[in-house]
Design goal:
Blueprint: E1 20-24, H1 29-39, E2 43-48, E3 61-62, E4 65-66, H2 67-72, E5 76-81, H3 86-96, E6 101-104, H4 110-113, H5 118-124, E7 129-134, H6 149-156, H7 176-199, E8 204-208, H8 209-214, H9 221-227, E9 244-248, E10 254-258, H10 262-271, H11 286-290, H12 293-304, H13 309-318, E11 323-325, H14 329-334, H15 336-340, E12 346-349, E13 353-356, H16 382-390, H17 394-402, E14 406-407
Parallel strand pairs: 1-2, 1-6, 2-5, 6-7, 7-8
Antiparallel strand pairs: 3-4, 5-14, 9-10, 10-11, 12-13
Helix pairs in contact: 1-7
Length: about 400
């Protein structure tokens, strides 16, 4: 969606139209999974506790409005229910029995204690797909441990490879494991729904944050077991490959240059004005360069330090050498490619006006995803959902509000 959409825009036309999803999630991985499903047409009903999803307090705010919630909760309907009450659990159970997918990220055992376990729900709704996202999975000796993405990165070995070799492991300033887990959860949901189309039965999709993180360690698993190789931090370099690193520019920025083949390396050193380097004993082949990373980086750095980042980009792109300046947020918003690929769409917000979202990923040619509206307020759709999905009367809803079983807010 490249232009501003009003909140009363038409319904979705994506490939998941017709699927109803119940989200019992907080913070990032679960809500991100459900957001991806919603972007492609699923009707997602997000259930929040009385205090709201903690992610409404995360990230930056404009006044009292969480900008993160406005994007991560987009395309969803939001209801607020107290699951500590018998009536609250009854409401959520009734909704689950009407849904195709239930996404939850409680610690293992919580859904069972709430009476919302897969076994009992699937007896009445055999087609239900339950997506369970947790730190360590639903089985195993560590299943009851609390686990956020950062914790599970440490457990999976990923954190040990992040940063410079002479410093403690660094933290990536993004929720990478949460988003990767969300992608795996969506992938699992799609496969489970495809299977249901053949068998008529749903199943459990068990996504562990540590396993999503660990899947990135694929290159090192056989290397350790076969040749006892133990990887460690290499900073901005790519192990066994050079030149492939960050290089300081004359104007104080950085460029990332990746000359990962002999042909590309020849084009790089031609631009550098040093074609003779191809015969240097430390730079004559991919394997040799991978054994002399520091030397290769020194040679490239000496050249980049003489030029501004934009000029380096121009010269190397003309020579078909992969390169990019290290972008800041202002660079991203100024770059025409992000605009052309619809990665910075503006969506109307009832208070903020046009609000820039991250675009929908991936791009589908025939049934693309779209953004119909920004994230709803806490409890914004409670009354509508109970009326339209469960046939509750206005009197019943008012009584539940008075009993503090459910909560509403004005849009």
């Amino acid at each position: 969606m490249s232009s501003t959409e009003p909140l009363d825009s038409p319904v979705h036309s994506g490939p998941l139209v017709g699927y109803k999803v119940l989200e019992l999630c907080s913070t990032i991985a679960g809500p991100a999974c459900a957001r991806m499903l919603a972007d492609f047409g699923a009707d997602v009903i997000k259930v929040e506790p009385p205090g709201g999803d903690p992610m409404r307090s995360m990230g930056k705010h404009s006044g009292d409005i969480s900008l993160y919630a406005a994007t991560l909760l987009r395309n969803k309907r939001a209801i607020a229910v107290d699951l500590k009450t018998v009536e609250g659990r009854k409401i959520v159970r009734e909704l689950a029995l009407k849904c195709d997918v239930l996404v939850e990220n409680f610690r293992p055992g919580v859904m069972e204690r709430l009476g919302l376990d897969y076994e009992s729900l699937s007896q009445e709704n055999p087609g239900l797909v339950m997506v369970r996202i947790s730190g360590y999975g639903q089985t195993g000796p560590y299943k009851d441990r609390p686990g956020y993405g950062a914790i599970c990165e440490a457990f999976a070995g990923v954190r040990n490879l992040t940063g410079d070799p002479d410093r403690p492991p660094a933290r990536v300033a993004l929720a990478t494991t949460d988003y990767l887990s969300a992608v795996y959860a969506c992938y699992g949901t799609s496969m489970a729904l495809l299977s249901r189309g053949k068998t008529g039965r749903g199943q459990v999709v068990d996504v562990a944050l540590y396993e999503a993180a660990f899947s990135q360690m694929e290159a090192y698993v056989p290397a350790f077991k076969t040749i006892d190789f133990v990887p460690n931090r290499v900073g901005s370099n790519l192990p066994n490959m050079a030149p492939n690193s960050l290089y300081l520019t004359k104007d104080g920025g950085y460029v990332l240059i990746a000359a990962n083949s002999d042909a590309t390396f020849k084009r790089l050193i031609a631009v550098m004005g040093q074609p003779e380097l191809i015969d240097h004993p430390k730079m004559s082949s991919i394997r040799v360069r991978g054994q002399n990373i520091a030397f290769c980086n020194e040679m490239v750095s000496a050249w980049t330090a003489q030029h501004d980042g934009v000029e380096i980009e121009r010269q190397l792109l003309e020579a078909e050498v992969p390169v990019s300046r290290v972008y800041t947020m202002p660079d991203i918003f100024a770059d025409p490619h992000f605009q052309a690929r619809d990665m910075l769409p503006q969506v109307e917000h009832p208070v903020l006006g046009p609000l820039t979202h991250p675009g929908v990923v991936p791009k589908l040619s025939s049934t693309p995803g779209e953004i119909l509206h920004s994230g709803p307020n806490f409890g914004e759709n409670t009354r509508d959902v109970l009326r339209d999905e469960l046939d509750y009367s206005a009197t019943q809803i008012d009584e539940l509000i008075e009993q503090k079983v459910i909560f509403c807010s004005q849009s």
